[in-house]
C-alpha cells in the first residue's frame, strides 16, 4: 500500500513537473512574442494588438506559479526563470493599466497581488539565480521601473498630490534597495512627501539614509533633526545637530537649528556658549549677532540683547529680523514695567514707572516703523506698532494701523 502510494505520488509529481514546465515555457513564448510589439504600443498608448499575448502570458505564468507553490516540482535551473518571467509579465501587465480601463480595474482591485507578483518575484529571482542568468535582465527592467516611479512621484508632488507622490517615491526607494542602488534622490523626496503627510517617523528614516550618504550636505541633517523634534525626540534631535556640526562646522543652517533646540528646551546658557564660539569665527555675520541677542532677551539680559542687535544692524542696517527683535525687546520691557505699575499703590512710584515705560515705547516705535517699512506685510510688526500708538495716545496712527491689520 505504501509502495503503491509512493508510485502514485511519483507519477503525480512527474506529471505536475511536466505541466509546470509547459506552462512556464508557454508564458515565456507568449511574453517574448509580445515584447517585440511593446515599443510601438507604448509609443501610441494602444495595446490592443499586444493585450491578448500579455494576458495569455499572465495566465500561463499564474498557472506555473500556482502549481509550483502547491507542490514544488520545477528543476532548480527553472526556478529563477519562473520568478523572472512572473515579475516581468506583471510589470508589463500593470503598465497597460494606464491605457486600458479593463486592465486598470483589475490592477486596482488586486493591488496586493500585483505588488507581490512584482516585488516578491523579483526578490526570489535574485535569491535563487545562482548562475546570474535571469536576475541581471530583471534588475535592468526594475531599474527602469524605479526611474519611472521617481519621475511620476515628482509630478504628483508638484501637483500637491502628496499621497500619490509618497507611494511613487516609496516604490522607487524599495526598488533601489532591491537592486542595491543608493537612490539618494528618491530617499530624499520620499522624506519630503512624508513630511507633507505628517508621517514624521517615516520621514526620519528616509532623511537618516540621506544623511548617512552625505546627500544634500547639512540640509538633510537639519530636516532630520526637525522631524525628530516633531516626534518629541528632542534629545536625539540635539545629538543629530551636534554630530552634523562636526562634519560641517560653522554651517549656518545647523547653527540656527541648534539654537532653536536650545531655546525650545530653555537651555539658554548652552545657547549663549554655542553662539559666542561661532561669532568669534564669523564676527561679520549679522544673523549670529541677532541670534545671540534673542538668547539674551530670553534671559532678560536686555542691555546685552540691545548690544547684540546693534551689532547685527551695524553690519546690515536693513536687517528686518534684527530691527523687529530690537523693537520688540523695548516693547516687551515696557509691558513688563506697565504690569509692575499696576501692582503699586504709591502714586510717585507709579508715575516713575509709567515714564520709564513710555521712554521704552518711544524707543521701540521708530525701530519697528523702520522694520514695517522693510516688510509691510508682517502682522506681528503691525500689531506691536498698533499697541504702541494706543499706549502713547497717537490716535491717528493707531487707526491707520488698525485698518492695515483689518485689510
Q: What does this 3D model show about the protein?
A:
The chain is mostly helical and 407 residues long. Among the domains are: 16-133; 154-213, Serine Threonine Protein Phosphatase 5, Tetratricopeptide repeat (Alpha Horseshoe), CATH 1.25.40; 217-265, no CATH class. 82% of the residues lie in helices and 0% in strands. It has 20 helices and no strands. α1 packs across α4 (79-96), α3 (48-70) runs antiparallel to α4 and α13 runs antiparallel to α14 (268-281). The chain is elongated.
Write the layout of secondary structure elements.
Blueprint: H1 2-35, H2 38-44, H3 48-70, H4 79-96, H5 101-109, H6 111-128, H7 135-158, H8 162-178, H9 184-196, H10 200-213, H11 218-230, H12 234-247, H13 252-264, H14 268-281, H15 286-298, H16 302-315, H17 320-342, H18 347-374, H19 379-391, H20 395-406
Helix pairs in contact: 1-3, 1-4, 3-4, 4-6, 4-7, 7-8, 8-9, 9-10, 10-11, 11-12, 11-13, 12-13, 13-14, 14-15, 15-16, 15-17, 16-17, 17-18, 18-19, 19-20
Question: Key features?
Answer:
mainly alpha, 82% helix, Serine Threonine Protein Phosphatase 5, Tetratricopeptide repeat, 20 helices, disordered N terminus, 407 residues
